[in-house]
Amino acid sequence: MTEFEDTGEALALADSEASLARTQRRSRELETQIAARPEQFRMLTGDRPTGLLHIGHYFGSITNRVRLFDLGVDTFILIADYQVITDRDGVGPIADRVINAVADYVAAGLDPAKATIFTHSAVPALNQLMLPFLSLVTEAELRRNPTVKSELEATGDRPMSGLLLTYPVHQAADILFCKANVVPVGKDQLPHLEQTRVVARRFDERYGRVDPARPVFPQAEALLAERAVTILGLDGTKMSKSKGNVIELGMDADTTARLIKKAVTDSDRHITYDPDARPGVSNLVNLAALATGRTPEDVAAEIGDGGAGTLKKFVTEALNERLRPHREKRAELMADPAYLHAVLRQGNEKANAVADQTLAEVRTAMQMVY
Ligand code: TRP
Fold first, then answer.
1. Which has the least CB within 10 A, 31, 96, 285, 322?
2. Of 2.60.40.1580, 3.30.1440.10, 1.10.240.10, 1.10.150.120, which CATH number belongs to 241-334?
3. Are strands 42-47 and 74-79 parallel, antiparallel or unpaired?
């Protein structure tokens, strides 16, 4: 494996400030290109079904995906079921979570007749790509992946599984099987994007091409949101289902109101937007801003001396109002599980057709057609 250039540093760099600034600039350019020629773009992105989708997903990624879909970008949404088992012992109530995710994507506006919504486990050829891809990365490189490192830290004393170490290569297969060229993600995923580009490049160098004019795999680019949305749990700490601080998209208006009532604030009656000094209050201000399409500063100024009570009432109404159409639609969909299963089956069929085609090219490039 010595002939590979050492990309450990490149991967670590993908995590650095300078590289982040560069990716943000590039994302702005990409946005302009997408708006001008949406038909030239295929996006692949997705979620791990480790729980039900919540308002963090909604404002952080789902609305952005729907925006790109509405612009006319070819859309692949992966429900990353095999990625659930990278860092936990069991799968949990996964079938239910997957169906709920399908309901949320469709309710949010991803038309399943056009968007491809699919799961890892149903697409054998995608998973098979991981095998040749694993030949293109070194163990040392994977150990230096900042995202793997921080996930390993988050799992405490739990020993690292082979899958946790190598899942960035599986994620490369997620992106490359459909030759996606744009991947809307948060910055925590940038090392995976860099790893994906490295795999694509090395595949070309080592195994060659089918069409001499172009590599089998394109270079996929991250698309970062113009303004990163960070939503905390209602206690002002990181969202986590076990802490009960999360508002799921499927919750009703009363449950939402009850959770917001219990949200942690502070004793200063004057409401301001100051995420560092006042995480609890600022998180609620931010939620109200996201739900109404206003700026956090504007919302804070309106509440002024009204105190936490007024703020909570404002957030509750704004959020319930904003989510009402989504919730109505998702409830309708959840009442028809046969339809949701059909949506997923159709997405899986489309993903399989694309993956089979890509795997055939890979076999051809690798001279493994017998
Ligand atoms: N790792 C991503 C997350 O935790 C989910 C994911 C899996 C993904 N495969 C992907 C995102 C491919 C973008 C592209 O959020």
1. 96
2. 1.10.240.10
3. parallel
pTM, to two decimals? 0.95
Rounded Cα distance between 18 and 142, Å, is 22
pLDDT, position 242: 79
Atom of ligand 1 nearest to the CA of 171: 9
Name the architecture of domain 7-229+337-365: 3-Layer(aba) Sandwich (3.40)
Side chain identity at residue 314, one-letter code? F
Does residue 256 contact residue 233 with C-beta atoms inside 8 Å?
no
Ligand 1 pocket member 183 (CB < 6 A): yes
Q: Where are the domains of the chain?
A: 7-229+337-365, 241-334
What's the pLDDT score for residue 215? 98
Instruction: Chunk the chain into consecutive blocks of 10 residues (it has 370) and report each block's average pLDDT, rounded to whole numbers.
Output: 57 75 96 98 97 96 98 98 94 98 98 98 98 97 94 88 97 98 96 97 98 98 90 91 91 98 96 96 97 97 97 98 98 98 98 99 98
**Lookup: tokens for 225:** 């949101």
Does ligand 1 lie within 6 Å of residue 195's CB atom?
Answer: no
Instruction: For ligand 1, say whether the CB of 175 is within 6 Å of any of its atoms.
Output: yes
Element (DSSP H or E) covering residue 102: helix 94-108
Q: Which of 171, 196, 223 to mutate to test the pocket of ligand 1 (most atoms within 8 A of CB)?
A: 171
